[in-house]
């Protein structure tokens, strides 16, 4: 579905759209929920913490945003199936936008990473995105926004460049970048666009993780042209753009939001 011939207001809007954003209780996911809902979408989000989710939902209601929540551990197959059943029931069997955002880091030298570390990070950051995309596919086929259904993955610049003590995490993000291109080609004929945002450092709980080597942070800041890390909203705005009718000819792209880190 093309967005041409529509007014600017219609192209830069998510009015009437429905969206699932994983990991919306904090950080980047929280900002994405507010951005999509602020542009008029009805949003469902999840995390593992029921109390935190309810507190978020209450605040969003006060802000006039239409957001529903449910508990889901995205690393667990049965939880993912239950989440998509809830989303299908909430939005009448249709979905316009899936944002695969939930993820965890592992700052550990490769030689010390255990089998459990590997399995947890792979299940949380990668398998979840593949399976949730599969589960969302029939709902996305019924998308009604101009520009068609849309999937956005949240990967990382760690999927492009080598960083010490981040091998397992970076493997999941590199694979997510490739999943973006593979699904984009496979689903273009279904009217579903698949894109990805790859942030550099963003001010969230992940970037304040006390297991990060301070030396790595110092070196990274020295190589960063813009000299600061991002606010979560600076990632959310690109996610919203990718889901809008105005991005109707964009698919298969991985967009770095990194203050220039990967071009310097
Ligand atoms: N912050 C950065 O510098 C940065 C840079 C590049 C990429 N990213 C990526 O951006 C995404 C979001 O990161 P963030 O920095 O916003 O992290 P964050 O502040 O720690 O928030 C992560 C969100 O995901 C949820 N989550 C984590 N594990 C989950 C699971 N197994 N099932 C369901 N929900 C889960 C968390 O809630 P619960 O823990 O309560 O479940 C929370 O809502 C991740 O994919 C991350 O890799 C972040």
From TrEMBL:
The keyword NADP applies. GO terms for molecular function: oxidoreductase activity. Residues 17-200 form the Ketoreductase domain. It holds the Pfam family adh_short_C2. The keyword NADP applies. Gene3D superfamilies: NAD(P)-binding Rossmann-like Domain. PROSITE patterns: ADH_SHORT. Keywords: NADP, Oxidoreductase. PANTHER family: OS11G0652900 PROTEIN, TROPINONE REDUCTASE. This is Ketoreductase domain-containing protein. It comes from Miscanthus lutarioriparius.
């Amino acid at each position: 579905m093309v967005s041409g011939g529509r007014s600017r207001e219609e192209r830069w809007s998510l009015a009437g759209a429905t969206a699932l954003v994983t990991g919306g209780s904090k950080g980047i996911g929280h900002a994405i929920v507010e951005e999509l809902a602020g542009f008029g979408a009805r949003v469902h989000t999840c995390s593992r913490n029921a109390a935190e989710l309810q507190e978020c939902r209450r605040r969003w209601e006060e802000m006039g945003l239409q957001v529903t929540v449910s508990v889901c551990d995205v690393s667990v197959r049965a939880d993912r199936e239950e989440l998509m059943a809830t989303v299908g029931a909430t939005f009448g069997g249709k979905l316009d936008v899936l944002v695969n955002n939930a993820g965890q880091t592992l700052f550990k030298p490769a030689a010390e990473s255990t089998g459990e570390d590997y399995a947890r990070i792979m299940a949380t950051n990668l398998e979840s995105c593949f399976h949730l995309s599969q589960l969302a596919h029939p709902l996305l086929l019924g998308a009604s926004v101009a520009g068609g259904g849309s999937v956005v993955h949240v990967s990382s610049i760690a999927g492009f460049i080598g960083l010490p003590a981040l091998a397992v995490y970076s493997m999941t993000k590199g694979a997510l970048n490739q999943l973006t291109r593979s699904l984009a080609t496979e689903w273009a004929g279904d009217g579903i666009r698949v894109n990805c945002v790859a942030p550099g450092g963003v001010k969230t709980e992940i970037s304040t993780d006390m297991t990060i080597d301070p030396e790595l942070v110092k070196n990274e800041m020295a190589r960063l042209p813009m000299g600061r890390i991002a606010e979560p909203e600076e990632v959310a705005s690109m996610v919203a753009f990718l889901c809008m009718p105005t991005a109707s000819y964009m698919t298969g792209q991985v967009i770095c939001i990194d203050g220039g880190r990967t071009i310097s």
